[in-house]
Amino acid sequence: MESWGEGMGAAKLQGDKNVQLALHLTAVLSVLVHQMKMLFLCGSSLFVDRFSVVLVIVMTMPTFRFVLHVQSICSKVCSPDEFQVTVGRTEGKAFPGEADCLRAVEDCVASAVPFSTTQSQSGHISSVFKLVHYELVLQCLRKLTGVVVQDIPYRTRRAVQNAGTNCGSDKEVDELLMKLPRRLRDALLPFQLEGVKFGLRRQGRCLIADEMGLGKTLQAIAIACCFKDEGPLLIVCPAVLRYTWAEELERWDPSFLPKDIHLGTDSEFHYSRVNFTDAKPGDNRPFDIYHQINMLCPRLLGDDKFEFAKTYCSLHVAQSSQGKIYQDFSKGARLTELNVLLSQTLMIRRLKEHLLNELPPKRRQIIRLKLKALNSRTATSIIQGDYNSTYSSSDAPIIASSEISNDCEEAKEGKDDSCKKSPRHFSPQEIGIAKIPGFSQWFSNHLMHDNLDAQSSCQKTLIFAHHLKVLDGVQVFLSEKEIKFVRIDGSALPRERKEAVDSFRLNPEVKVAIIGITAGGVGLDFSSAQNVVFLELPRSSSDLLQAEDRAHRRGQTNAVNIYIFCAKNTSDEPQWLRLNQSLFRVSSVVNGKKDAIREIEVDQVYHLGEISNTKERPEIEFLPNCGAADSACAPYPLRMKAFIQECNIVQVQQYMKIQFAIVFLFHQLSLALQVHEVNQRR
Question: At residue 647, does pLDDT exceed 80?
């Protein structure tokens, strides 16, 4: 009994939630073991009987303790000529600790091949080997007993090792470049010319994944011009960009006549070959990248999407709000290896921070506001179609003024059942409409320097939102302030969208563009704007970055101020956290481990309606309130409760089993103490 407790305490188990749970419970059990040992020496016969029951329970508890801690070895590509070996846990055997496992791996291969050791930012240690030694290392690892080895996919290893063998020569590339019109060739910047050559070496089958604003369209047109003699060219793009692409083709290559360019929907064209793609892969999760890559290089990532998911996605079963069970592929795995694979075969990726040093900065500020009860009721009424109370005779929505007194709000609060609805249960559309009064007040105070002459004092601003009724509310406010604006949403025709863009760029009197995020958040040039406002949070991190870079791009001469409105105690807060998580997953694939974006950088958090503003980390601020559980000085039960909430369901089940056994032990111990006291009195 004593040796089991000491062995548990001496185990080298660190850096995992399962381990931390076990250490908490082991500390309690070690005290119990000592107390039972002392009582047993006191000679209580009744305690001996109860102790036999306790002993059976305690001896069965190692199955709860060790089921999640098992040794496995994972090998994955970490650079074009290296791969790394890490140790982890799977089912089958007790995990002795990362350091001990890695030492055993290194002892196994030390006499066969050279290696080095590296440590990640999270503190995990791994061994790094040359990719040419992979087969030899794998043979050594398979000699170890009680381990499971996860191989590098054969297609991945072969593609990385053979990268560049099927590319065209420099002579062939130069011959293709001579087909470019001189005006187009001279307009290419050095990094853009490098991107064009990258595509030409691969016969046009490439993925131009440059950051927004670096001229992907120009590079794509240049590659297309080099292959225009081989057949018709198919350009697939959002409807709002069809006229933009047509004009760019006519501008850069005079041989493209208007009669040669046909605009239509996806059902009107049928082509057998697609030479290249101009896109940013993986909008929200690595799983989304499969079809783009499979079109360019069939079966590079697997025979089908689900084979790809088994290797490069962290699959787990989830349950929807309607109770449906589904497979969730949102999280990625082996993302560094996936980045190396794509970069070595068909993807080229450059960042603005590396190329456009003269580009002005981009400053983000989060505007946090608390939704008032009256504004929430107004939003609910507008959605439910209560036109008598929420619309004027001109059918334009009337948004409640933020200047209405609090007494009026409290008087109406008890008469409307909609006010009883928790803000966390508001729909995204309700939240967006309820933000408009606060937004209107903030816009008047911050972006209009002279309330008497709003038109001339207002700065060029882009306002993004999702829902039409939210856009309608912004339009009403701007009309009341007599500020000229243009609007782009899903109902606008392609020609109308282009005219709106030109009017905003060229007409100094047009100060604001009201834009639907999905309708006008990509491919448009609004570099004349100084401010970007998100009245509603985008649904993916890619939508956020794409919309921001409509203003922050080549041609911008001023710093771009980005304002993101987030309503307190609503679904906006968990959505912001999801945006950060998805951004890290996607950027790990396209940027690589070194340049992966770990969080959306925010310069300032401003609390609307409060006297002071603070500079803080929004990710911490937006977490649900846990009271004292957030403090290191909080009582142990509260800290343990917050800790348990971070565990998955399997970990919680194991914890509850052990916790039940501990409660039983305490109960038995208390009975034994009572009997011991009675015997002492006698």
Answer: no
